[in-house]
Specification:
heterodimer, A: 273 residues, mainly alpha, MetI-like fold, 14 helices, B: 307 residues, 2 domains, two-stranded antiparallel ribbon, 76% helix
Chain lengths: 273, 307
């Protein structure tokens, strides 16, 4: 019995040590965002300081934070919706009317993710330049849709697979057509799966950095690119960087915590549930 | 059954045929848009990259354009930074994979134990994965690893060591640390989910049979984890081959080319030197590298799949 208690204490201490260690940089960033710039660069960190909201004001006033936040919102939500519009019907077709080639089709979709973005940077850049899509929200939105489409299809496919087929069979007996079946039966039944797929797609596009950095500038830059502009600092900037960063990651942190279980299924293409 | 059908009126036959044909068309029309879009997305840019890789084409000098044979590839191979950046890419992917999967397995076993406040601890441990890469890299660069006012420098001074300038002394290792911090939670969460899907009866039975913790891990947990490890390896490799933002905001590939990976090298050719030809040849190299890896990864992943 005493052995058991000792064991539990050890595990508790180890578990919390790991958790706090991993969370520390985020904690430190949040704390710094409430410091003055002077406090922020102190060589011996000030544990006690009078918190200020000055940095949050400065980030909006001097760098118009909300302009970039709005770009992120439009791109993330827009690309997610568009990806779902494409993914839901095809995942449905593959889950419920499988053919001999369905498995190969799915693996081929997965293999499109193996194409390194940088391998097609030049053509995409030139196509965007010629179509006038450089530094536009539309362009970035389209790229994010394409990046997330395979993941969305896979994730939805695994969710649709779990819908009891008897219910759909019954509807089919009643003479319901394919589209009716999809919109009136399957969608309500698999709403939780669709919502988690949407959340994952939002997280992935919100944090996408490669295309954001290469295809956008001041006009359409989302938060990932905006934060990167802090890499060439002018004067004192630690506290402001922290404030901007805290604002940028908070919504996604919350989404991520909500959807952590389904996220595993989506990112491992259904291999781990 | 067949006999009966044959004796029926041909009109019935035709009706059956029409119905399945219409059904099949409906199904195809559901999946065709995605397939078409993904096909265009995966083929057209690829062909363009191939085409440009054989062209002499610099955006700064648009007049001098034309077929150049293997010129770009010869130029690329004569550039010592290519081999270095491939080596850096392999090191980066290998090191972060080893760290995240090794530590991730240990931590997953730890978080599988009941302990006080486990739910909250898990939420905290998971957080780094949701931090965008540019925030991650800048926080580590400025607030953790900075030689003057970084937290690590503070700790090192506290125990009497001289703080080091991480990005100057060990640029690639610093990036390994940054990326590992971001992806360790993903490995942890995935492996933990896999362990927890192992039914407790089997674990209980093994314990009854007197299996110790270590025997338990190697005989029960690890075989069960193999599939999850294959999945984590695949998805992490996809992301690690394309690491870019972390390098972009911290070292810019330097000092020299010490932390330049293939992604960053191609970016330099393309958007800093405007050399479309060389960048495309580099792109082809990156695609070949990724596909060689993909061949193994997707195969081992698909073997474990019940699709």
């Amino acid at each position: 019995m005493r052995n058991n208690l000792l064991r539990k204490c050890t595990v508790t201490i180890a578990g919390w040590a790991v958790a706090l260690l991993l969370f520390f940089p985020i904690f430190w960033m949040i704390v710094t965002s409430f410091k003055t710039e002077g406090d922020a660069i102190a060589r011996i960190p000030h544990l006690f300081f009078s918190p200020t909201l000055e940095n949050y004001r400065a980030v909006q006033e001097r760098a118009s934070y909300f302009h970039f936040a709005w770009n992120s919102v439009v791109v993330a939500l827009g690309s997610t919706l568009l990806a779902l519009v494409f993914a839901v019907p095809s995942a449905y077709a593959m889950a419920f009317v499988p053919t001999r080639r369905t498995r190969d089709t799915l693996l081929w979709m997965l293999s499109t993710k193996m194409m390194p973005s940088v391998g097609v940077l030049v053509p995409i850049y030139l196509i965007f330049r010629d179509l006038g899509l450089l530094d536009t929200k539309t362009g970035l939105l389209l790229i994010n849709t394409l990046m997330n489409l395979p993941v969305a299809i896979w994730m939805l496919y695994t969710f649709f697979k779990e819908v009891p087929r008897e219910i759909l069979e019954a509807a089919r007996m009643d003479g319901a057509g394919r589209f009716h079946e999809l919109y009136n039966l399957l969608l309500p039944l698999s709403m939780p799966g669709i919502v988690s797929t949407g959340l994952l797609a939002i997280i992935l596009s919100w944090n996408e950095a490669f295309w954001s950095l290469n295809l956008t500038a001041a006009k359409a830059a989302p938060l990932t690119a905006f934060i990167a502009s802090f890499s060439s600092p002018e004067g004192l900037f630690y506290a402001k960087l922290s404030a901007a960063s805290t604002l940028a990651i908070t919504p996604i942190l919350i989404f991520g915590w909500i959807s952590q279980k389904q996220l595993v299924r989506g990112l491992t293409f259904g291999a781990v549930k | 059954m067949v006999d009966r059908l044959i004796t029926y009126d041909p009109a019935v036959y035709e009706a059956i045929g029409r119905k399945t044909w219409r059904k099949r068309l409906a199904t195809i029309s559901l999946k065709m848009p995605s397939i078409a879009v993904l096909f265009v997305w995966s083929v057209i840019p690829l062909l363009m990259t191939l085409w440009f890789s054989f062209q002499r084409y610099n955006l700064m000098d648009p007049g001098r354009k034309g077929f150049d044979g293997l010129g770009n590839y010869r130029y690329l191979l004569s550039d010592p930074s290519l081999i270095l950046s491939i080596w850096n890419t392999v090191l980066l992917v290998g090191a972060v994979l080893a760290i995240t999967i090794g530590l991730g397995t240990l931590l997953a076993v730890l978080f599988d134990q009941e302990f006080f406040g486990r739910g909250i601890a898990r939420v905290l441990a998971l957080a780094p994965f949701f931090v965008m890469p540019t925030v991650n890299a800048l926080v580590w660069k400025n607030m953790m690893m900075h030689p003057d006012n970084g937290f690590i420098a503070f700790l090192m001074r506290g125990i009497g060591l001289r703080p080091i300038d991480w990005f100057a002394v060990a640029p690639l290792a610093s990036i390994v640390i940054i990326v590992s911090w971001q992806w360790l939670p993903f490995a942890l969460l995935t492996l933990l989910t896999a362990i927890q899907s192992l039914d407790s009866e089997r674990k209980e039975a093994a314990r009854m049979d007197g299996a110790g913790s270590i025997a338990m891990f190697f005989h029960i947990i690890w075989p069960h984890l193999r599939q999850a490890v294959a999945a984590v390896t695949m998805i992490e490799t996809i992301f690690f081959l394309g690491i870019f933002a972390e390098i972009y905001v911290t070292t810019s590939g330097g000092p020299g080319f010490a932390s330049t990976n293939l992604s960053f090298l191609i970016y330099r050719y393309a958007l800093l030197e405007y050399d479309v030809g060389a960048a495309s040849a580099g792109g082809v190299v990156a695609i070949v590298l990724a596909n060689v890896l993909a061949l193994f990864l997707i195969r081992s992943f698909a073997r474990n799949l019940d699709a």
